[in-house]
Amino acid sequence: MYIDAKSLEYANKNIIINNLQPRIKLLKTTPEGPLIPWEETGLESIDFVMCNPPFYSSEEEMMESAKAKKRPPFSSCTGAPVELITPGGEIAFITRLITESLHLRTRIQWYTSMLGKLSSVSLIVEKLKEAGVKNWAVTEFRVSGKTRRWGVGWSFAAWRPSAAPQSSLESISTQLNNIFTSLPRTTWRYKAALLTGIGFVAENTWSRGARRKMDHTVQEKAKSKRNETMNEDNSDSDSSDPDIDPASATLGFKIQIQPPRHPSPSGSSLTSQLDQHPPSLPRSSSSKTEPHMTIRWLKGDDQVLFESFCGMVRRRMVGGG
């Protein structure tokens, strides 16, 4: 990919303005040269390579893509043609990156690239498999509104990527919303961007004895409320019961989903862990390589009720019951 002189000039000015000369080194490449000019870096190893390739193979393809959108984009495109168009489009560009990685291998721990088209994801994964790459990962980025992008990464090292991609975190969010939007006498507000929800309950409605006392009308109301509040992208949820005043609620709680802090070398499957936080109980130790949830006691003076509540959440999250 050719980087024009003007782009390099502005990039260099940004580095100087932010006093980043000791940390950033610009390297000019040519279309005929390698995408990763390894010899010019002067480094023995690199943690990762990050790439945002030109998406389109021609100006015609770019225009057709714009016409295919159901509604106009929310922001204008300011990319130069050299940043948006390359022979063969993003598939050919990332294929070149894969080919170079086969020679550099473990000198770079992770090779990563963004993708602009969903149709490209499966094609790139197939090329990785054909090249004998066994350690790879794919994720999705929700940029804004309905705009989506995808990311692919691969490595020749033994360390696996995190066992909790964004899709797993969204699955946990869905479970939480399903639990509390179906729980009667409950106010629940969830912020997807913060992976955090706050709720209040008027009374114990989850125990076996409490369920026996519930009449058919209350159950039907809860089901109706759940259908109205849930949406397909599991974003913010508000299932507030107008009859529940937080000031008079028997129990108040805050639930926060904690993403893993670093990759798990085992690449194990997702397991949800719950830490409950009443004032008199210490926090349990849990692995930071897997997502877990923290339940904080915000309001109330009945510790037995809080522990019963935590047990209910744990059972439904782990067992789905």
What are the salient characteristics of this protein?
321 residues; alpha+beta; six-stranded mixed sheet; four-stranded mixed sheet; 10 helices
At a glance:
The strands form two sheets. A six-stranded mixed sheet has the order 7-5-6-8-10-9, with helices on one face. It has ten helices and ten strands.
Taken from the alpha-carbon principal axes, the silhouette is: elongated
| Beta-strand fraction estimate | 15-25%
Run of helices and strands: HHEHHHEHEEHEEHHEEEEH
Number of helices: 10
DSSP summary, beta strand count: 10
Strand order of the largest sheet: 7-5-6-8-10-9
Helix content: 25-40%
- pLDDT < 50 stretches: 229-233, 262-273, 278-287
* Biggest beta sheet summary: 6 strands, mixed
Overall pLDDT level? 76
What is the gyration radius calculated from CA atoms? 25 Å
Report the end-to-end length measured between terminal Cα atoms.
54 Å
What class do helices, strands and sheet pairing give? alpha+beta
Tell me what the structure shows.
The chain is of the alpha+beta class and 321 residues long. It is built from 10 helices and 10 strands. The protein has helices spanning 5-17, 38-41, 59-68, 81-84, 89-104, 118-130, 166-181, 208-213, 216-229, 303-319, and strands spanning 46-51, 108-115, 135-144, 147-155, 186-191, 196-201, 237-238, 251-258, 273-277, 292-299. The strands form 2 sheets. Strands 7-5-6-8-10-9 form a 6-stranded mixed sheet, covered by helices on one side. Helix 5 runs parallel beside helix 6. The N and C termini lie far apart (54 Å).
